[in-house]
Design goal:
heterodimer, A: 239 residues, mainly alpha, 11 helices, B: 107 residues, two-stranded antiparallel ribbon, 6 helices, extended
């Protein structure tokens, strides 16, 4: 089904997805460049940086894997680290799946491949207003595909520009800033506030755990806190 | 070894992402799990956002000397008020770069 052949409504949804994704693409570009720069600084050829972006499509795990591989870390440890850094995607998958009930296998595989933080963030807010499955898929892919392309081009550009770009400008700070930007509107009541606070505290305290397990422990603690606080008050979670 | 990492890591990452999408048509989640899923975004975003801000090479630093912390607090306020990703990221980066220039310390 070509883009032209889609119903006008689906094209609107795809465009809406792309438009919503635009600011997130701009804010991820510095990080994409950095991932490319770090790759060549570590000693990899630019095509390797691209290969990581193609196979993983997950910035923080790409950085970790490239570093560990260069350090001579055993394969099993590298894979375990990648697993824990990316384990949050399982939570995204579980949380987004109910919206995609009935979608075709290939569509779900494509959405799965492109399911990273930013497409997930957008979809949560947009799926509510789209009662039809095809519209949700159109919105998601409309944003996720440009985002994927930007990541590929960004890491390649970073790798090719390599030494020309200073990696110590703190450009990687744009990543936690993006998460802050999406965290703020996600806090809507006491339960979500509790979840955010507990997740942050635990993740920070647990940061010395191996294989980036601190992130998972922090996230799970935050989820537990959210569930507990929501069950404490009678209506569930009034602010 | 490189290809083992690429393919192994790639398969792992894809499987994690695809896991529930593949299963959704075949199982229904119990209500407690569904309730827990509501808190996934806020918990994960928070767990991803704050550690890079307060953790430096020597450990946890929560004090006026941590430039990233200042930048993050300002950015969080901007995020809360404007709900705009670009403004938030721009504000945080500007504060960080500005403070590092003023104090002469690294970012």
């Amino acid at each position: 089904m070509t883009f032209r052949a889609c119903s006008p409504l689906l094209r609107d949804d795809a465009r809406a997805g792309a438009r919503a994704m635009l600011p997130l693409i701009v804010s991820i570009l510095p990080f994409a460049l950095i991932v490319g720069v770090v790759a060549v600084r570590l000693g990899y050829a630019p095509w390797v940086a691209s290969a990581f972006s193609l196979f993983f499509f997950a910035g923080s795990s790409q950085l970790a894997a490239m570093q560990l591989l260069m350090d001579g870390t055993p394969l099993a440890i590298i894979l375990l680290t990648v697993l824990f850094i990316n384990l949050r995607f399982t939570m995204y998958s579980a949380s987004i799946a109910p919206w995609l009930r009935g979608a075709g296998v290939w569509v779900k595989m494509l959405m799965g491949y492109t399911l990273t933080d930013q497409p997930y963030m957008l979809s949560l807010y947009a799926f509510d207003q789209r009662p039809a499955l095809s519209r949700r898929v159109a919105f998601f892919l409309g944003g996720a595909l440009p985002f994927w392309l930007s990541w590929q081009l960004g890491t390649l550009a970073g790798a090719l520009l390599g030494s020309r770009l200073p990696a110590d400008w703190g450009l990687d700070f744009s990543v936690p800033l993006t998460f802050l930007a999406l965290l703020a509107p996600a806090i809507v009541d006491r339960a979500t506030l509790a979840a955010a606070i507990v997740a942050a505290i635990v993740a920070v305290l647990a940061h010395t755990l191996p294989w980036n397990m601190g992130l998972i422990v922090g996230a799970l603690s935050g989820i537990a806190a959210g569930v507990v606080v929501s069950s404490l008050s009678p209506q569930g979670s009034r602010p | 070894m490189l290809w083992a990492v690429l393919i192994g890591g790639g398969l792992i990452t894809f499987s994690l992402r695809w896991s529930f999408l593949a299963l959704v048509d075949h199982l229904s989640l119990p209500p407690t799990v569904r309730r827990a899923l509501r808190y996934v975004p806020v918990a994960v975003f928070s767990a991803m956002a704050w550690p890079p801000v307060v953790i430096v090479s020597q450990g946890i630093e929560i004090g006026p000397g941590n430039l990233r912390l200042w930048a993050a607090i300002i950015a969080a306020l901007v995020a809360w008020k404007t709900r705009n990703v670009l403004y938030t990221v721009a504000a945080g980066m500007l504060v960080l770069l500005g403070l590092s220039m003023v104090t002469g310390s690294a970012v």
